[in-house]
């Protein structure tokens, strides 16, 4: 079965993104296809490469990146929701004349149209 | 058939009560995160939850029980793989 | 794809309502079958006479008018949530259909995907 996931919770301070990550692992382990993960609202903070948890804690940003690269699914971050929360990639930083950007690879800033594409491409959409 | 994913404790939030109130007769419920407490400690929703359990429509996430040091009194315990399987066997989910 | 969007949050206290509306309008370009639900404190999203500039927030209430323009005809409120809050569904800023909790459950069951804000 084809799964897509919508993550709307923050990577730290609440459990939602951790639950989402564990669900993603289980989807793959069960032999289903994960067509992509879309990050929206507070979920866009999952793309912030500057997150610096303590050494003995899980770095969810890096964990998502590794899982996505291993299993070939996209980590799409809503651009308008991300920019409002200070999650910026290099082109957006240049456009807004910011001195820094922080979007971690392979997360990608995309429009809400990408959520619609994932929605159309999956059998099940699960929100966290 | 909807899979209701409930995440908040019924002692602090109305999500479980409201989700129960807006569910159809075949819908399934999976308690995760703080909501797992609902089948460990008796709340105002106890009788409704027992009914759901008798109809085999109530599930609780194993990892979230263990993480909190809680033991469920009823509800069927599933792990994340069971969670995925429940998603497959229902037509859509609502994350409350 | 039949998609249901559930609005459950108060306006302005969080950005959920505004970001929900953005998602609805974007999804409507791809799906012709979108249903929008306002339940619990989400029914306050549609209350007229909001002035969020007083609290440094943008007034997106007029944008709900776009739903009609985008041919989104399935707009529902929870009758019970309105009653509990003393709101007349007919007095809201856009035309909505009021549903009982049982009817809401039936409508949810018809959707292939549901997103809650």
UniProtKB/TrEMBL annotation, chain A:
Report if keyword Transferase is assigned. yes
Q: Which UniProt keywords apply?
A: Cytoplasm, Transferase
Q: Which GO terms describe its molecular function?
A: sulfur carrier activity; sulfurtransferase activity
Stored SUPFAM superfamilies:
DsrEFH-like
InterPro entries found in the cross-reference section:
DsrEFH-like, Sulphur_relay_DsrE/F-like, Sulphur_relay_TusD/DsrE
Its localization reads: Cytoplasm
Quote the cellular component terms of the Gene Ontology held in the record: sulfurtransferase complex
Where is it mostly found? cytoplasm
UniProt-listed GO biological process terms: tRNA wobble position uridine thiolation
Q: Which family does it belong to?
A: Belongs to the DsrE/TusD family.
Q: Which protein, by its recorded name, is this?
A: Sulfurtransferase complex subunit TusD
TrEMBL record, chain B:
Question: Which SUPFAM superfamilies does this entry report, sorted A to Z?
Answer: DsrEFH-like
Instruction: Give GO BP annotations, semicolon-separated.
Output: tRNA wobble position uridine thiolation
Give this protein's Gene Ontology molecular function annotations: transferase activity
The record, for InterPro entries, names:
DsrEFH-like (IPR027396), Sulphur_relay_TusB/DsrH (IPR007215)
Q: Which domain of life is it from?
A: Bacteria
For whether the record's keyword set contains Transferase, the answer is yes
One Gene Ontology term, aspect cellular component? sulfurtransferase complex
Alphabetically sorted, this entry's keywords are:
Transferase
**What NCBIfam families has UniProt attached to this entry?**
sulf_tusB_dsrH
The protein in question is named Sulfurtransferase complex subunit TusB
Q: Which gene encodes it?
A: dsrH
From TrEMBL, chain C:
**Molecular function in Gene Ontology:** transferase activity
Presence of keyword Transferase: yes
Q: Which UniProt keywords apply?
A: Transferase
Q: Which residues cross the membrane?
A: none
**What's one Pfam family the UniProt record gives for this protein?**
DsrE
Query: Which region is the signal sequence?
Result: none
Q: Of which family is this protein a member?
A: Belongs to the DsrF/TusC family.
**Annotated protein name in UniProt:** Sulfurtransferase complex subunit TusC
């Amino acid at each position: 079965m084809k799964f897509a996931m919508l993550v709307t919770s923050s990577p730290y301070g609440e459990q939602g993104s951790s639950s989402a990550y564990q669900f993603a692992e289980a989807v793959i382990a069960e032999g289903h296809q994960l067509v992509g993960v879309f990050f929206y609202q507070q979920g866009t903070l999952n793309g912030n490469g500057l997150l610096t948890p303590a050494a003995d804690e899980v770095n969810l940003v890096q964990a998502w990146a590794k899982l996505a690269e291993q299993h070939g699914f996209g980590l799409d971050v809503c651009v308008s929701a991300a920019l409002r929360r200070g999650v910026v990639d290099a082109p957006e930083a240049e456009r807004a004349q910011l001195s820094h950007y922080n979007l971690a690879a392979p997360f990608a800033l995309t429009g809400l149209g990408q959520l619609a594409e994932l929605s159309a491409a999956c059998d099940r959409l699960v929100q966290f | 058939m909807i899979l209701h994913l409930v995440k908040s404790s019924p002692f602090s939030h109305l999500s479980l009560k409201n989700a129960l109130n807006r569910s159809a007769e075949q819908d399934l419920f999976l308690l995760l995160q703080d909501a797992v407490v609902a089948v460990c400690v008796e709340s105002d929703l106890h009788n409704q939850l027992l009914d759901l359990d008798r109809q085999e429509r109530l599930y609780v996430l194993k990892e979230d029980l263990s993480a909190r040091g809680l033991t469920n009194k009823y509800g069927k315990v599933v792990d994340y793989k069971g969670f995925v399987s429940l998603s497959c066997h229902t037509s859509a989910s609502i994350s409350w | 794809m039949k998609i249901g969007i559930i609005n459950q949050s108060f306006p302005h206290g969080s950005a959920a309502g505004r970001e929900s509306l953005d998602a609805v309008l974007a999804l409507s370009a791809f799906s012709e079958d979108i249903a929008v639900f306002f339940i619990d404190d989400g029914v306050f999203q549609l209350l007229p006479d909001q002035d969020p500039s007083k609290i440094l927030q943008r007034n997106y209430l007029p944008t709900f008018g776009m739903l009609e323009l985008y041919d989104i005809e399935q707009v529902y409120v929870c009758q019970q949530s309105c009653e509990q809050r003393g709101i007349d569904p007919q007095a809201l800023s856009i035309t909505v259909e009021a549903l009982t909790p049982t009817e809401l459950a039936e409508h949810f069951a018809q959707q292939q995907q549901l997103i809650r804000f």
